[in-house]
């Protein structure tokens, strides 16, 4: 258990029947880069039951925040979804992950493409002042099946827009693009299709993909990641990693689905 820190749950909010977020205390020695993940979990029968979770909080915030799906028969999330204020969770002492700006070649527009709880690392990144310093435009696209599943992302973006410091900073730089696939909504369709057809860019009044200026981060369903990886690679975009920055990066560590 020495590889984990015990943290206290500060708040829990259930957004839908299948999605919830929670905050917890943060050990002063726990360091991470915005966009990274850590192993978190619960002690079950004296043993740690852990899964990879991206921090939805930024590295300058005092508390940790996580965004999770509920899996009724999931080994961890069947238990985690029942946590309450004051409960104890375990947090791994080391953060890691590929969704950091250092893994990208410098560019002008940053596309953050997510589905479901894949929004979490981008909730952290859009709170990073350096991101706004390094990019002229940040486009946060979040795809879900139903409108209700967009609630957490809308909450995060609205909080930033009304924030004393971030509000003026992001007003002309952050473009939020939510889309759903199974209900009427102002934006409809899968992110993959919306990019392939150029509809996403038309909707936000911007030019289409440009390898010279666009840098991309992906986090979401395996199908989305596979399809976009193939699409970007076919257009000459190179995947980046810790040893060699590229045009796009993918997070391959998933919470149970």
UniProtKB/TrEMBL annotation:
One Pfam family hit: NAD_binding_1
UniProt entry tagged with the keyword NADP: yes
Cofactors, names only: FAD
InterPro entries on file: Cbr1-like_FAD-bd_dom, FAD-bd_FR_type, Flavoprot_Pyr_Nucl_cyt_Rdtase, FNR_bac, FNR_nucleotide-bd, FNR_type-1, OxRdtase_FAD/NAD-bd, Riboflavin_synthase-like_b-brl
Keywords: FAD, Flavoprotein, NADP, Nucleotide-binding, Oxidoreductase
GO molecular function: ferredoxin-NADP+ reductase activity; nucleotide binding
Residue ranges constituting the FAD-binding FR-type domain according to the UniProt record: 2-105
Reactions it catalyzes: 2 reduced [2Fe-2S]-[ferredoxin] + NADP(+) + H(+) = 2 oxidized [2Fe-2S]-[ferredoxin] + NADPH
GO annotation, biological process: cellular response to oxidative stress; heme catabolic process
The protein's Enzyme Commission number: 1.18.1.2
Broad EC category: oxidoreductase
UniProt keyword annotation of Nucleotide-binding present: yes
Family from the record: Belongs to the ferredoxin--NADP reductase type 1 family.
PANTHER family: FLAVODOXIN_FERREDOXIN--NADP REDUCTASE, OXIDOREDUCTASE FAD/NAD(P)-BINDING DOMAIN PROTEIN
Protein name: ferredoxin--NADP(+) reductase
Organism the protein comes from: Bradyrhizobium manausense
């Amino acid at each position: 258990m020495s590889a984990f820190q015990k943290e206290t749950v500060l708040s829990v909010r259930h957004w839908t029947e299948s999605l919830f977020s929670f905050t917890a205390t943060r050990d002063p020695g726990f360091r991470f880069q915005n966009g990274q993940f850590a192993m978190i979990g619960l002690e079950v029968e004296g043993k740690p039951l852990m899964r990879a979770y991206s921090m939805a909080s930024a590295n300058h915030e005092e508390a940790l925040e996580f965004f999770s799906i509920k899996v009724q028969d999931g080994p961890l999330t069947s238990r985690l979804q029942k946590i309450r204020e004051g409960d104890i969770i375990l947090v791994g002492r080391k953060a890691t992950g590929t969704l950091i700006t250092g893994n990208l070649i410098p560019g002008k527009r940053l596309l953050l493409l997510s589905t479901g709880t894949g929004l979490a690392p981008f909730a952290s990144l859009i709170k990073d002042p350096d991101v706004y310093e390094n990019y002229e435009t940040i486009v946060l696209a979040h795809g879900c099946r139903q409108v209700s599943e967009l609630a957490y992302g809308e909450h995060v973006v609205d909080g930033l827009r009304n924030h004393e410091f971030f509000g003026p900073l992001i007003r002309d730089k952050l473009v939020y693009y939510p889309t759903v696939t199974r209900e009427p909504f102002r934006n409809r369709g899968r992110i993959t299709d919306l990019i392939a057809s150029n509809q996403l860019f038309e909707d936000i009044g911007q030019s289409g993909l440009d390898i010279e200026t666009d840098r991309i981060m992906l986090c979401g369903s395996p199908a989305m990641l596979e399809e976009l990886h193939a699409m970007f690679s076919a257009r000459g975009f190179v995947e980046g990693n810790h040893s060699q920055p590229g045009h796009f990066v993918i997070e391959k560590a998933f919470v149970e689905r």
